[in-house]
Specification:
By secondary structure, the protein is α/β, with parallel strands linked by helices. The chain has helices spanning 17-24, 38-47, 61-73, 92-97, 110-123, and strands spanning 6-11, 30-35, 52-56, 79-84, 102-105.
Length: 124
């Protein structure tokens, strides 16, 4: 990875993916932050450019679907990785149509999620 600092924001109801990604990126120049509400997510994205946004759909499904739609409507561009429960698997194409660049079930490992983040910033 280059010397450029990468920024990842994680939307989740309780700390899980944020500390896991912090562990995964210990040797990399990556800063991982978290938020717990759509309002907080919007504020963070307005004040900081993020390379990747990881959203846990189970944290606020309706709010995150609206947020994805708003992002698409306003032309905002942050690579968004959606993590869903097995029961939410049927929403994959809807979530992708709203702009998510990747979709995974809750069974994704921390190593896999970190690889997904790296793939996103290598493509953008």
């Amino acid at each position: 990875m280059s010397e450029q600092t990468r920024h990842v924001i994680v939307f989740e109801s309780q700390p899980s993916w944020e500390p896991e990604l912090q562990r995964q990126f210990l040797d990399d120049n990556v800063r991982v932050g978290a938020c717990r509400s759509v309002k907080d997510l919007d504020q963070r994205l307005a004040h900081q450019a993020y390379d990747v946004c990881v959203i846990d759909l189970s944290a606020d499904l309706a709010g995150l679907l609206r947020w994805l739609g708003d992002q698409q409507d306003h032309g905002a561009r942050v690579a968004t990785l959606a993590i869903a429960t097995e029961e939410q698997q049927s929403l994959e194409w809807h979530v992708r149509e709203l702009g998510a660049t990747a979709f995974a079930t809750e069974y994704v490992t921390g190593n896999q999620l970190a690889a997904m983040c790296r793939k996103q910033w290598n493509e953008y």
